[in-house]
Amino acid sequence: MKIIVRIDVMLARRKMLLKELAEEVGISVTNLSLLKTGKAKGVRFETLASICKALDCQPGDLLEYAEE
């Protein structure tokens, strides 16, 4: 089982930089980068909700399930 994180796609669609998103959400660029690259072990629903609000999207736009 693998969860693919598509934050980079939404950032490109919104023409927003990772740094701008980090500032708006209130987390460090490092932590957001770990999430973006799929290296994070998890994400809080509160953080996910803040990212969705900042990018004007749904959680399904950011996360995708794929079988390995």
Structure description:
There is one protein chain. The chain has 68 residues and is mainly α. The protein has a single domain, classed as 434 Repressor (Amino-terminal Domain) (Orthogonal Bundle). It is built from five helices and two strands. A two-stranded antiparallel sheet has the order 1-2. The longest helix has 11 residues, at 45-55. The termini are close together. The mean pLDDT is 94.
Give the helices and strands, then pairings:
Elements: E1 2-5, H1 7-14, H2 18-25, H3 29-36, H4 45-55, H5 59-62, E2 63-66
Antiparallel strand pairs: 1-2
Features:
68 residues; mainly alpha; 434 Repressor (Amino-terminal Domain); two-stranded antiparallel ribbon; 2 strands
State the CATH topology: 434 Repressor (Amino-terminal Domain)
CATH superfamily label: lambda repressor-like DNA-binding domains
| Counted beta strands | 2
How far apart the termini lie comes to: 6 Å
C-alpha-based Rg, rounded: 11 Å
Write down the CATH class.
Answer: Mainly Alpha
Shape, principal axes of CA atoms: globular
Which stretches are low in confidence, meaning pLDDT under 50 for 5 or more residues running? Answer: none
Q: Give the integer mean of the pLDDT values.
A: 94
CATH hierarchy: architecture: Orthogonal Bundle
The strand order across the widest sheet is: 1-2
Q: What's the helix count?
A: 5
Beta percentage is 5-15%
